[in-house]
Specification:
By secondary structure, the protein is of the alpha+beta class. The chain is built from 15 helices and 16 strands. The strands form four sheets. Strands 1, 2, 3, 4, 5, 12, 13, 14, 15 and 16 form a ten-stranded mixed sheet that branches. Strands 6-7 form a two-stranded antiparallel sheet. It has a two-stranded antiparallel ribbon with strand order 8-9. It is globular. The two termini are 19 Å apart.
C-alpha cells in the first residue's frame, strides 16, 4: 500500500517548535513542566497567528506531572491563553508520551472531531519528587492516630533513621516493575545479545555530540527551538545545554559502567541525559487549513505501536517501525531519514543490527522480512538524546518535529521517527513533506 493512500483524511503538520532541552544537574531545574510547555506553546501560537479560540483541542504527553499541575495539558493551555472553552487532556505512554499525544490528536482529526489541534509533550525530570518510604508513611499515620500527649511521645520514640531515607521517584520510574530491571540493565542485555561492545557505544555517543555541535553551528535549530527565559538566575537558554563539545573517546572511555559496575558497558556518557523540555506541533485537517488560512509543512501519514519483552524494551523501534513499513508496503530504502531516539548508544546500535536481521525481524518481530540496513548518514544526522537529552514525555514529539525539519532542509520526502518505550513497547511515526 502506498503511503498516500493510508488515510482518506489527511492530518497536516502546520508548524512546531520546542524549548531547549535543559540537563538535570542534581537539583530542581528553573522551569516547571507547565512553564516549559507554556514557553514553547505560546511562541508557536504567536508564530502561526492562531487566535485563542481557534483550537478545537489541546493534547499533551507527560509522564510525571507535578502534583500542582494535574492534567498539565489543561494547565498549560489556559496559561498559554487558549480559550477556556477548548478541551485539553494529558496522555501517558512512558517515553513515547509525546508521540502518543500526536497520534491521539491525529486520530481525532481523522474522525472529524477536531480540525485544529495543539499536540506535543513535556517533562521536567529534574523536578521528579523525593517520596517518603512506606515505613515513614506508616509512622506518620500512627502519629496522627495518637490522641494523647503520652501516646504521641511514645510513638515519636519509634522514629528510626530508616524512616528518613527518601524514595527517589525518578529511579523508581526508570525501573521496570515486571522485569525487575532498570532501563540501563535492559540496554546491557540487548547490547550483549547483538555483540555491541563498549568502544562502539562510546564512538556512537561521541558522534551524537559532534553532530549536535555541528547542527548548532550551522543554525539548523534556529526555527525549531524557542529561546527559554528562566526566572531567577536561569537567564536565557538558546540551545540544548547538555551538549559536551569537549568530549572525546578518551574521556568517554574513562567513565565507569553505571548499571552493571563489574561487567557492564553502559555509562553516563553513552546514555541519554536526564533532562527537562517541551515540544509542540500544530496539527490540522484540510478543512482546518482552509478555515484558518494556514500552509502545511508536512503530514503525519501513520503511527504504529508494538509491544515486546520488557527486559528487551530497547528493541521496540524494530517492532514498531517494522510493522509500520510493512503495513505501508515500504522498506528501509524508501525512507530518506530516520530519527531513532537515543535512549542508550548500545540500544540504538542493537536496533540497527536487528533491523538487518531476517531472523530477528521474522521470528521475533513477526515481520515478513528484515526491514533492511539504515546507514548512519540517514540516522540522527543532527545528534540525538545522548547529546541533547531525553525528557521522557517530550521526546516523541521532539523527534517527530525534527524529522520533518530535516526533510524540509535536505529536500527529502519521507522520514520515520521511532523510539523504545519503558515497559516493553515501541512507537513509530511516518512523516511526509508536501
Amino acid at each position: 500500500m502506498h503511503p498516500m493512500n493510508e488515510s482518506a483524511a489527511n492530518v497536516f503538520i502546520v508548524d512546531g517548535c520546542r524549548t531547549p532541552v535543559l540537563k538535570a544537574r542534581g537539583a530542581p531545574g528553573p522551569c516547571s513542566g507547565a512553564d516549559l510547555a507554556v514557553a514553547a506553546g505560546g511562541a508557536l501560537m504567536l508564530r502561526a497567528g492562531i487566535a485563542a479560540d481557534a483550537l478545537d483541542e489541546v493534547v499533551l504527553g507527560c509522564v510525571m506531572a507535578a502534583a500542582d499541575e494535574a492534567n498539565i495539558a489543561r494547565v498549560a493551555a489556559l496559561r498559554i491563553g487558549v480559550a477556556q472553552t477548548t478541551p485539553a487532556f494529558t496522555v501517558q505512554r512512558n517515553c513515547a508520551s509525546g508521540m502518543q499525544a500526536l497520534d491521539t490528536a491525529a486520530a481525532r482529526i481523522r474522525q472529524g472531531a477536531a480540525q485544529l489541534t495543539l499536540a506535543g509533550g513535556v517533562e521536567a525530570m529534574s523536578r521528579a519528587p523525593l517520596l517518603l518510604n512506606d515505613g515513614a508513611v506508616h509512622w506518620l499515620a500512627g502519629l496522627r492516630r495518637a490522641k494523647t500527649a503520652a501516646a504521641r511521645i511514645k510513638h515519636i520514640a519509634r522514629l528510626r533513621p530508616a524512616h528518613l531515607k527518601p524514595v527517589v521517584a525518578l529511579l523508581r520510574g526508570l525501573t521496570d516493575p515486571v522485569a525487575g530491571m532498570s532501563m540501563g540493565q535492559t540496554a546491557e542485555k540487548i547490547a550483549r545479545r547483538f555483540g555491541i561492545d563498549r568502544d562502539a557505544m562510546d564512538r556512537f555517543a561521541l558522534q551524537s555530540h559532534r553532530r549536535l555541535a555541528h547542527a548548532v553551528e550551522q543554525h539548523h535549530f534556529d526555527d525549531e527551538i524557542q529561546p527559554l527565559y528562566c526566572d531567577g538566575d536561569g537567564g536565557v537558554v538558546e540551545h540544548d545545554d547538555g551538549l559536551r563539545r569537549d568530549t572525546s573517546i578518551e574521556k568517554l572511555a574513562k567513565l565507569k559502567p553505571v548499571f552493571e559496575p563489574l561487567s557492564g558497558s553502559v555509562t553516563a556518557g553513552n546514555s541519554a541525559q536526564v533532562s527537562d523540555g517541551a515540544a509542540w506541533l500544530l496539527l490540522a485537517s484540510e478543512r482546518g487549513l482552509r478555515e484558518h488560512r494556514l500552509e502545511p509543512a508536512g503530514r503525519i501519514v501513520a503511527v504504529e505501536w508494538a509491544a515486546l519483552d520488557p527486559s528487551e524494551m530497547g528493541l521496540g523501534p524494530v517492532h514498531a517501525a517494522g510493522r509500520l513499513l510493512q503495513r505501508l508496503g515500504l522498506d528501509a530504502r524508501d525512507i530518506d531519514y530516520w530519527e531513532l531516539n537515543e535512549a542508550f548508544a548500545g540500544q540504538v546500535l542493537a536496533c540497527l543490527a536487528a533491523f538487518e536481521s531476517h531472523d530477528y525481524c521474522f521470528n521475533e518481530a513477526g515481520l515478513e522480512r528484515a526491514v533492511g540496513r539504515i546507514e548512519q548518514e540517514r540516522l540522527n544526522i543532527d545528534g540525538g538524546a545522548i547529546a541533547c537529552g531525553h525528557p521522557v514525555g517530550m521526546s516523541g514529539a521532539r523527534i517527530t518535529l525534527h524529522a520533518l525539519n530535516v526533510l524540509r532542509r535536505t529536500g527529502g520526502k519521507r522520514a520515520v521517527a521511532t523510539l523504545c518505550i519503558g515497559g516493553g513497547q515501541g512507537g513509530a511515526a511516518l512523516i511526509e513533506t508536501l
